[in-house]
Each structure stands twice: as C-alpha cells, then as structure tokens.
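Deliverable D5.2: sample structural annotation.
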Amino acid sequence: MNEEANAVGWDAIDREMSRLYGDQEPKHYGTLLPYSLGGQDPLDGISAYKADEPAPHWHFVTYGFTELYDKESDNPDDSGYGFELTFRLAREEGEEEPPAWALNLLQNMGRYVFNSGNIFRSGDYLDANGPICLGADTLLTALAFVEDPELPAIDTPNGRVEFVQMVGITRDELEAMQTWNTLGVLSACLNHMPHYITDLERASHLDIPAISEAVQNGMREEGSNTGFLYVDQLAWELGKKGWFSKSPSTLKLGAKQAGIIGKLLQGRILKGKSLTLVGPEIRVVFEAGEKPGYEAGEDEVRLMLDEVTAGEFSRKLLPKESVIELSALPGIAIQIVKTQIKDNEGNVVEVIG
C-alpha cells in the first residue's frame, strides 16, 4: 500500500486540527526531498493555521516526529517519538503568510531530535543561546515546552501522539524554570500569556510583581525540579600531592552557568535533593550530607555538602572569572572560566565572565 493511501498518522493529526479550525485551509509547507534521502529538512511538513482567540496568532503544527504512514518502530504504545510540536506566534494585523523564521525554528528542532535522539516533553526547556528569531531585537532567547492547551494527546493506529507546544521565553524566565520548575513558571505567567502565545516584542514576565512573587514563593517552598543539567564547560583536574609542590584538585565551570548552578544548589541541596552536572567527559554530583567531603573517580566526582557549605558555595558562584575555595572542603578549588557565546557560523557574539 502506498504512503498516500496509508497516511493514518497524518490523517489523525489533520482530524485534530479540523476539530479546532473546521474547513480552514492551512498554509502548508512540505518537504520536497525526504531527510532519509539526503534532504535538509527532517520534518515531512508544517501547517500554520490562523487563530483569532484569545488573540490573533499563527498556530503551527508539525508532521514528522511521529509515524505518519506505516508503523515501523517496535514500540506499540507510542507513534514514532510520541509527539508533534506546536507553536503559537502572535500575528500582525494584515499578515497573510507565517514568518519563515518560525518554520526554520521548527525544522531546527527536528534536526536536534533526529540527530540526538533526545525528545521534548511538557516541562522541558532549551536555551537557544541567542534570539529564537535570528537577528531580531527580542528578549526571547530560550524555549519552554508545555502541553498544547487545545490539543490533548490522541491515540492513533500507530500509537499515542502528544502535542507539545514550544513557548518563547526570556533568559531570566529560563533561570526561574531551572531553579523552580517549568510548568510552575508558565502557570504563573498564563494570565499575561494566554494560550502561551509567543510574542517577540514582549518584556520579561518577571517584571510583573505578582508573577515574580509567585515564582519566588515556589522556589522557596518547593525547591528546584532540575536534577540534571548539561554543562558544556565542565572539567575536573586532579591535584598534585608531591613533596615539593602541591596543588588542589580543581573543578572548572563556565561563567554562563555558574550563577544558575549556585541557585540550583539552594533549590536542591537545601531541600535534601541531589544535583548532577553532566559535561562532555565528566559527571559531577552534588549530594546533601551531614559532613562535607568528596570522592573522585575517572569519569565522576561526588561532592557531599552540608547546608552551611552549600550556602557558602551558592553565594560565591557568580558569573565572572574567579577561583573559589570552600573552608569545609580543603584541597578543592572551583575555577570559573569565561564563556564565549557563538552564533551559528561560529562567530563570538558575547563573552560572559
């Protein structure tokens, strides 16, 4: 049976969108050459619908993270990766075509998933390290992920499909999600961001006192849900213990993530939870304990911190080049090194630290 005759996964998505938009013909952008045959775009297609409520916006939906045609995977429960992405973008008056950058962003998400195998679920976040719309004058430099408010999960002949919506967020909103949790922050913002519509021109929602207070209360009462954090600038150098020269073992961290790690230590260790940093070649695990200490292996370092040491460490972890020593952990130094932020072409656009 050919694909057109057996597009059961595609048809299931179409039915859900028709439930919302009736006979509206969406703007659809297909892929001429499939990714599997050397094409540049991993997703088979993206549709964009005009929505007027609760505010004018484009409602994008992807086709390609799930099994659109015949069932090929061995997982009977989920269709493909188990989700399709949606994206709601504020629509200008008189705008008849969805912005090309939004289509490119969704295809970039496809490349990330197809190349890494990592998937997106409600509650996830992703730092874009720059404007989500390249070249735009916007504060939105990261993405959060949440269940699409109008598209519940569906069961298809190929398995379950969830509709996970991308939401553009600011740097400080990202930090709030890391130090508390994504869904808590998004919920606090909902009255000012109905249906989680992304608006490139908006300011940070944390500038609104009621939202900032709700986030601070959540951090204080619940701590952080971030138990694992990938850190590209993470290294461990074993110290020297010779007769004539001694040097401490050194934990190296990038300045960009030093500040957020300090906040995470408060939200994890002080709540009795561990925090794991995952780097290119080493894992560093911070654990709550009554007595400070550390154990170092070939590819993992474990640091035990009591409340006093965790507090001292947290206060000293700032996004600037420095060397930190902790009174309760003699023999260890923490070196904060500069972070270079680069664009897609490898050019340095910002230096932190």
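Annotation notes: The mean pLDDT is 92. The domain at 228-343 is CATH 3.30.1360.230 (Gyrase A; domain 2).
The annotation will be released with the project's public dataset once the embargo ends.
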